[in-house]
Design a protein that fits this description.
Shape: globular
Order of helices and strands: HEEEEEHEEEEHE
Radius of gyration: 19 Å
CATH architecture: 3-Layer(aba) Sandwich
CATH class: Alpha Beta
CATH topology: Protein Transport Mog1p, Chain A
Largest sheet: 7 strands, antiparallel
Structural class: alpha+beta
Distance between the termini: 60 Å
Number of helices: 3
Length: 176
């Protein structure tokens, strides 16, 4: 009897260890023009932002897994001028850094296109204290403008994530 109970307990532990924290699934957002792998079923949200004094909407798809939030935000710009795109990229870069009290340091990155090729964007990783409790957060982000859209693919985590999880998310982020 004790042997059967021990075997059942061991099987339960083994099965629970097999349940993935990251259940990756490809999400195609045809309305916003991107595809990305999320580690869980994403939810949708929208919020108003002011970029350069102009009110705009930011659509968000977010999923939580492994003590992290994975998100893709899309801002629809009033035009596709270089100045408008730069202002939106600067706004997003500064906002991400400000959320954790860090310097908005970013470096160039190549963002893949679903049809092949790449376009220039920005990549940043910042850490610092966030929220009322000043808890440490790490933010990984890629920012890119394409036409009248500006995109923010970001991961916000309680602690640094394994590189393979970061790579899975960002390597799957492709624009149409």
């Amino acid at each position: 009897m004790i042997g059967a109970a021990t075997a059942a307990l061991a099987l339960g532990v083994a099965l629970s260890a097999c349940s993935p924290t990251f259940d990756w699934r490809t999400v195609m957002n045809n309305d916003k023009g991107y595809t990305v792998d999320f580690p869980a079923k994403p939810g949708n949200d929208q919020r108003a932002v002011q970029i350069g004094g102009t009110p705009m909407q930011m659509a968000m798809q977010t999923a939580e897994a492994g003590n992290a939030v994975f998100a893709v935000g899309t801002v629809m710009l009033p035009d596709d001028s270089d100045a408008t795109q730069r202002a939106a990229l600067d706004f997003l870069r500064a906002g991400l850094a400000r959320n954790v009290g860090a310097t908005p340091d970013a470096h160039p990155a190549q963002i893949p296109l679903a049809a092949g090729g790449k376009i220039p964007g920005l990549e940043m990783t910042v850490s610092g204290a966030a929220g009322a409790k000043h808890e440490t957060r790490t933010v990984y982000a890629r920012l890119v403008a394409r036409g009248r859209h500006v995109y923010q693919a970001a991961i916000i985590a309680d602690q640094p994530l394994p590189q393979e999880q970061v790579d899975q998310f960002f390597s799957s982020f492709q624009l149409y």
